[in-house]
Structures are given as C-alpha cells and as structure tokens.
Amino acid sequence: MAIHDDRPAGDPLAELKTANDQRILLLVMDGLGGLPREPGGPTELEAARTPNLDALAAGAECGLHVPIDYGIAPGSAPGHLALFGYDPLQYPIGRGIVAALGIGHPIRGGDVAARLNFATRDDTGLITDRRAGRIPTELCTRLAALLDGIELPGVEVAVRPVRDYRAVVVLHGAGLSDRVSDTDPARTGVAALPPRALAPEAEHTAQVAAAFVVRARELLADEAPANEVLLRGFAQLPRIPSLTDRFGLSPVALAVYPDYKGVSRLVGMEVVEGLADLDAQSRALAAAWPGHDYFFVHHKYTDSAGEDGDFDAKVAEVEKVDRALPGLLAGEPDVVIVTGDHSTPSVARSHTAHPVPFLVHGAAVRPDAVRQFGERECAAGAWGVVPGRALMAIALGHAGKVARFGA
Amino acid sequence: MAIHDDRPAGDPLAELKTANDQRILLLVMDGLGGLPREPGGPTELEAARTPNLDALAAGAECGLHVPIDYGIAPGSAPGHLALFGYDPLQYPIGRGIVAALGIGHPIRGGDVAARLNFATRDDTGLITDRRAGRIPTELCTRLAALLDGIELPGVEVAVRPVRDYRAVVVLHGAGLSDRVSDTDPARTGVAALPPRALAPEAEHTAQVAAAFVVRARELLADEAPANEVLLRGFAQLPRIPSLTDRFGLSPVALAVYPDYKGVSRLVGMEVVEGLADLDAQSRALAAAWPGHDYFFVHHKYTDSAGEDGDFDAKVAEVEKVDRALPGLLAGEPDVVIVTGDHSTPSVARSHTAHPVPFLVHGAAVRPDAVRQFGERECAAGAWGVVPGRALMAIALGHAGKVARFGA
Q1: pLDDT band at residue A149, thresholds of 50, 70 and 90?
Q2: Which of the four pLDDT bands, split at 50, 70 and 90, describes residue B9?
Q3: Which of A252, A306, B197, B396 is deepest in the core (most CB within 10 A)?
C-alpha cells in the first residue's frame, strides 16, 4: 500500500476547511534526517545539544514521516510539497519551473521554462566545458540580457540570470508543451544535443527551442568561454491548488534560498525577499505575524552539511537552529511543526529515503513519551511513521481549522 | 490525504470472506479518546480504574486508530462506519438519513429524508425561535402527525417525531434528489430560506419541499410557538454493501441511542430495541448469542460526559463499562475489540481528531507490552496508528473469516 493515496472522495480537508485566527509555524531543517557516523552511535540530530527542541518535544506529539513514499529519496521541491500537505506524486515539478519561480520570475499557465547553462564549445562544435569556466554572476547577467532580446515568431522569450553560469529561459505563447528533451549531453567532448519532441504535441516547442539555440550561438559567438547554451528540465507549471484554496490559510514563506521561495510561490505563499540568515528570518517572522496564519521558516545548511559529508557541521547547524528557536517562537504560534523535508545523512552525502523525525506542538496535542528530539525517540512517538503530507492535516486539526466530518 | 486507501483491486475482504462459527464482539465507548486535564496528567481513560480492561489489554494487541483521516474530527455515524470496516469518506451519510434510520423509519432507495425542526415565526414571517421554545416530545408527536397527512402530487410524505422540537420528513416518489439546500437560516430575525436545487436533477425535489413548507405553515398557523418548520440535511440512502454481503457476518446491534441503531441498520445489522442500559445490553447480548456471530455493543455516556466537559464523569463512565465487561464477555466471544468511534476529550468538550485507543483480544492475537488500557500505552502497542476500518479486518482475520489470498 502506498503510504499515502488519492481519495475518490476528492479533497476532504478542503471541503472541511474552517478559517480562524490560530497560527501554524512550520520550521524546516533541510535534510534533517540522519544516520550514525559509526555503528551504535548517535545520528547528527541525536548528537546535537538541543535543549530548546527537547523541551518542545517533551510537550509534543512526535513521529517520523515519509515525504514521498517508502524507499523513495525526495528532491527538495517534492519534499516541501509533502510538508505543505500535498501528494508530491500527484504534482511533479520540473526543474525549469523551480528555477524560474526561485528567482521570482512570473510564470503563466502554458509557459515553458527550462534551465539554461552557459557553456563552452570549440570551433568544431564540441562541448569543452559545461559550465563555461563557472563565469561570475555579473557576466551571466549581461549575457542573459543579451539573449533576452531574442525574437521568435509567435513566442515571447525571457532569459533571466540565476547564479554563476546558471540562467533560466521562459517561453510564452500558444500551443507550447514541456515534453522536450534536454540539449545538455551531460558530458564534454561531444556536441550539444538537438531539442527533441518527446510527444507529438511538443513538435512546435522543440522547433522553437532549436531556433532559440541557433540564435543564441550567433549572439554569443564572441563571448567565449560562454559561447554556448545547454538547456535542461523543460517544464510547465503544474496546476496546484493554493494553500488558501485548500485550507483557507494566509501563508508566508521565510526562506533564504531561491528554490524554497519557488516551491512556496507554487502553493500561493507570500514570499519575503532579502533574508540572509535565521536572525533576519526571525525578524521577518515577527513583522509578518499580524497578517498571516501559516509561517514557513526554512534552514538550508543542515542539508548542505549532510551533502558535504560533514557530520559535525550538520550537528552545529542543528544547534544553531535550536538557539534560534526561542526567537522564532516569540509570537507564540498555536501549533508548531519542526521537521525536515527529507533525510541527508552525512555518511550518505546525499538525500536518502529514511523517514524524517518530526514534532507537533500545541495546546491541543496529546504529548507522548519523547523527551529528546531525535530519530530513535521519534520512532517511539505517538504517531509512529506517517506520510509527510499528514503533518499539515494534523496541524490543521489541532489548530481547529477543520470542521467535523458527518453528523 | 488518507491514512488508508481504496484499492483499485476492489474489496479483497469481501472476495475472501469465509463463514465460520467464530464470534466477534465490538464494544464501543463513544468518544473514548481523551486528553489530560492538566499538563503531564493522565487522560480520562488513563485515570480510570479499569482492572478488567487492563487484564484484557495484557493479552491483546493494542494501538490507536484514525477513524476518518488525519486531522479530521469524526461525526458519530462516519466514526462507526469506520469501526464496521467501511471507508467513511466513500460513504457520506446525510443528517436526514441518520435521523430517519435512528427512529427506525424504513428508508427505501431514492427516498429523500431531511431533519425537520419546529420553529417560531412572527406575523412578518421572521424566525424568532429556531426551536419553538423547545416544545416537549408529546407536542412534537401531535404536530408531526398533523403534517404527516400532507398530500403532494406524485410524492408520499411521511413526518415522524424524533425528540423535543426535532422531527424528520421523508419523501418517497420518482425522480427525487437530495441536492437541495437547507431552509434553516441558522439564525433568528430573518425569514426561513426557500429550498433551492443545488443541481439540475433536484429542481423537482426543491419544488416539492417548497410546496410542503407552504402547506405545513397553513396547518401550523394556530400552533404558535410551533408555527414554522425548518428543513436541513436533505439526504438519500448511500448504497452501502451490508456486513453480510461484505464479510458474511450475521450482525446484531445492542445500542440504547437512536442514531447508533440507525447507522447499524445502514450496514444491515439486526437491531434490538428497548435497551435502557448496560445490564439490558448484556442480557440482550446473551439472548442474541445463538443466532449471530458479530455483536456491536454501544455505550453513549463516555461521549456525553466529554461533551459536557466533565472529566470525572467520563472517568466514571469508563469504570462503569469496566465493571460491565465480565458480563459482556460471559459468552466468551472468540475475538473482542474495545475502542471508541472518535475522541471526545472533556477539556475540548467536543469530538476531536485525536487517534482513538483500541485493543483486539482473542486466542490468535500476538500480545504486546501494553498492561494498562490507555492512550499512551496503546501508542506503544503492537499496531501503532492504523485506519479505523482496519480493526474489522484485523478481527475478521483473527476469527478465521478471511481466506488466504493467492496460492
């Protein structure tokens, strides 16, 4: 049985949604779930000194969640969709969309977005560097502006810089499809691939993409090492009902990294820009307090440390969040969820499918025996193992935002 | 999102049903799940002295169940549907149907039932009391008989008293639909609403309802304070396969309150009438023993005490059931389930979404470490958190009423 599923009955939580002034705070430590460094040892979270998280856990319902499904390591976007109460398998999100939303570029239904990487090609057309020597963002910005002017029949082209050699291209027009193959060959010494239609309805888009690449090469001819473009992750906006439509929430995202702002916008969250660290996030949380009832605070560096294979650095990032916790809770949210969007054990150096520890705190919870916020204690918590998207439902229930079902 | 899912495979338990003489007893303490009165304290069930339930739990498999879905507080009818092995989201039950079945009024497929509340209107037609001064049941009975005679073209009208100012109207005829809006404005100082069709196929029914209201006002003209009727919860019988069809059971319900008899009839249970208390239920259980293999015993007052916010009264009701347990088990049922249909913590004074403790006892169970029947011990029980409807499946399995699936 899939750990979660789509009901014939549709969306019961949406049908039962009940607005009130209760506030829900979701605190995400990216890639929180971990593994012991040595057999029998503690995980990163278990090793961390977390007096504030432990105190919260002592009055909370704890458990482990599976973001996507058993055995599946989540990407960051689907992992967060689950935490926001959606079934990630129902709403696949393409890389191009995440990139465009991440930089705040407005995407309309039907638009096709793709990641654009500046690269280097030699005189014979072979790729010699897929990252154009990692050109600086300033140069990326100038070159993106150059390509932004490209005119193609019946299609508006927008090219925007992201960071370093990475940009995004967005096509706007009628009859577009995202069923187009990547042009990035994923290795050097070969030519870029032609964009191919992966479905009949994508022939037009594939031709548009091919014409764009030809024109881009002309404009970049004298810009070596950035004289080539590689396109990947063609994607269109998935139709996702917003958190307001589904749950009646007024949500706001307090994230530092573009991708998490992107997935937040995807579900209709207001996004606060220009946040550099937990202090700024904490201040922005206080400022957003009056006008919202759902607050998403995201901390990236637990995941970064895990990806780097740095056990101690991940421990330090967890402790940093623990020290920031009192400030984040200063407004006294009615329901608090603390968890991760997936596991990134430092011994694995990557996202894994391991269940992710969580706690749900609030006046209406039924506290369990968990006294320390960690993987093994949470496994013995009140909830056991639940689907990631159950956390939103549980929080909404505790916040009184779900009407009774039936007489 | 669902804690349980509906399989494309259909209804495996029905396909595998195997009749035998093993008996299953389901003992429901309504609204059993609770919360501590003060932080760190016991719940009502944990505070109750329950030597008999604890002894049963010591040899049982325990856990918590979610009747409807994460975060959703169950109504009594859907809560019981789950305990009977059905997905409540798949079989929504309208208020009118629950009321009609509750008083034992025969409902045929296609009939439309609605709650009818006697109310008071002033000379200008505005509602001044939505409950007609809570007229006594005797008066309600006389007035219902008055309206019961209403004749409308092509439709049989039945009006039956329920209790106090509450009655039920049942329409029988061709081409009826329950997609009709309530006439109860839900507040005073305004006129009753006209019944509106919520779907094209309901136009006829809306007209019938409107004609009924006009005629009812004429008949009640001199009956102030009960000179108005308010209709709500138009509903038709959901097509629910019976416990006999699905599981091959010969079920009997031993309940005191009308609503629980109603939902029992909905799944094809035989219903014993005229039961006043646990003693009578215990005697009726013994009398029904020879002819049945599934016994549903319902105790209402745990929920009532929770709704009243009376922690001690709920504790006392649990202890009352504990004292009655030996008598209820005198026939030595092969499988016993003890649980609730939802949580009604006295601190909440209402149904909540909190998981509900359960135990499953029988010769074939694999006992866990639970020694005291309570929320937190059950959270650490053999089953963890399961969908409500899993309890029936687990009981059928232990009773040997499910054939092996596959070679």
Answers
A1: confident
A2: low
A3: A306
CA distance linking residue B22 with residue B6, whole number of Å = 27
Across A69-215, where does the E strand assignment appear? 112-121, 127-129, 155-163, 166-173
| E strand map for A255-381 | 270-271, 294-299, 335-339, 356-362
- Residue B8, pLDDT score: 46
Query: Which of A1, A59, A402 lies closest to B71 in CB terms?
Result: A402
User: Quick one: DSSP state of residue A212?
Assistant: H
Contact B74 A405 (CB under 8 A): yes
Confidence at B210, pLDDT banded by 50, 70, 90: very high
Residues of A with Cβ-Cβ distance to B233 under 8 angstroms: 407
- How near does any CA of chain B get to the CA of A393, in Å? 5
N- to C-terminal Cα distance for chain B? Answer: 33
Long-range contacts of A133-142 (CB under 8 A, 24+ apart): A133/A165, A133/A225, A134/A164, A134/A165, A135/A164, A135/A165, A135/A225, A135/A226, A136/A164, A137/A161, A137/A163, A137/A164, A139/A226, A140/A164, A140/A165, A140/A166, A140/A167, A140/A226
Q: Does A70 touch chain B (CB under 8 A)?
A: no
Crossing angle of helices B278-288 and B311-328, in 10° steps, is: 30
Q: Using CA atoms, how far apart are residues B215 and B212, in angstroms rounded to an integer?
A: 5
Q: What residues of chain A lie within 8 A of the CB of B69, using their CB?
A: 7, 12-13, 393
> Which tens digit of pLDDT belongs to each residue from B45-79?
999 999 999 999 999 999 999 999 999 999 989 99
Q: What angle do CA A182, A82, A291 make, to 5 degrees?
A: 110
ipTM (interface predicted TM): 0.84
- Asked if residue B396 lies in contact with residue B15, where contact means CB atoms within 8 angstroms, the answer is no
Is residue A145 within 8 angstroms of chain B, CB to CB?
A: no
| Token reading at A387 | 């689907």
Q: Is A95 on the interface with B (CB under 8 A)?
A: no
3-state secondary structure B171-237: EEECCCCCCECCCCCCCCCCECCCCCECCHHHHHHHHHHHHHHHHHHHHCCCCCCCCEEEEEEEEEC
pTM over cut 0.80: yes
Measured CA to CA, the distance from residue A86 to residue A88 in angstroms comes to 6
Q: Indicate the pLDDT class of residue B4, thresholds 50, 70 and 90.
A: very low
Helix, coil or strand: residue B91: coil
Q: How far apart are CA A206 and CA B273, in angstroms?
A: 72
B96 in contact with chain A, both atoms CB, cutoff 8 A:
no
Q: Which of residues 350-389 of A touch B (CB under 8 A)?
A: 364, 366-369, 380-387, 389
User: Which of B5, B39, B375 lies closest to A1 in CB terms?
Assistant: B5
CB atoms within 10 A of CB B285: 26
SS3 of B42, please?
coil
Cα–Cα distance, B11 to B405 (Å, whole number): 12
Q: Is B88 an interface residue toward A (CB < 8 Å)? A: yes
Query: Cα A69–A70–A73 angle (5° rounding)?
Result: 75
Contact list, B375 vs chain A (CB under 8 Å) = 366
Chain B CB contacts of A397 under 8 Å are 70-73, 352-353
Nearest to B113 by CA among B126, B95, B135, B136: B95
Whole-angstrom Cα distance, residue A82 to residue A50? 25
Are B75 and A405 in contact (CB < 8 Å)? yes
Percent above pLDDT 70 for chain A: 98
* Residue B293 tokens, joined: 């293999």
**How is chain A split among helix, strand and coil, in percent rounded to 5?**
30, 25, 45
**3-class SS of residue B356:** strand
Give start and end residues of each alpha helix (H) in A149-277: 203-219, 243-247, 258-266
CB pairs under 8 A between A and B: 132
